[in-house]
Amino acid sequence: MSTIQVDVVSAEELIYSGEVEFVALPGEQGELGIYPKHTPLITRIKPGTVRMKIAGQSEDEVVFVNGGILEVQPNRVTVLADTAVRAADLDEAKAAEAKRLAEEAMANHDSDVDYAQAQAELASAIAQLSAIKRLRKVR
Questions:
Q1: pLDDT in single tens digits along all 139 residues of the chain
Q2: Which pTM does this prediction carry?
Q3: Cα separation values, 94 from 30, 31, 124, Å
Q4: Is the separation of the CB atoms in 8 and 50 below 8 Å?
Q5: DSSP letters along 104-135, please?
Q6: Which of 30, 33, 48, 112 is deepest in the core (most CB within 10 A)?
């Protein structure tokens, strides 16, 4: 099967770079699946998991992204993530605490908390917890 080069980059570092058979990730309009020779595309992505099928490996490579931009060319996919974390490095307790704090901030309308920021933090925490649950089922 043919492959496509995928680079997942955060502001801090290159998280993943390599050839894959398939990549799936959360676009703004829904889940995107990309195979080699895909039509060129640029779109925003939502918080969620980037799943990559690597030739010869039974388990997918998984990276959590907290939003960003996706660029697709026929032979290259670039994910420019706001924040990216390898699936193995996700911390369930930290994500649950972030969710709780965001929910409290949204419930406290009298505070100086930016409601939109609290919503974004809540969406990110929920996406992380969902990714952790999905990874547990796979393993």
A1: 799 999 999 988 899 999 999 999 999 899 999 999 999 999 999 888 899 999 888 888 888 888 899 999 999 999 999 888 887 666 667 767 777 777 777 777 665 567 677 777 777 777 766 776 766 665 4
A2: 0.71
A3: 26, 26, 12
A4: yes
A5: HHHH-TTSS--HHHHHHHHHHHHHHHHHHHHH
A6: 48
Q: Which of these CATH numbers, 1.10.510, 1.20.5, 1.10.260, 3.40.50, describes 91-138? A: 1.20.5
Contacts of 20 (CB under 8 A, 6+ apart): 3, 4, 6, 52, 53, 54, 55, 61
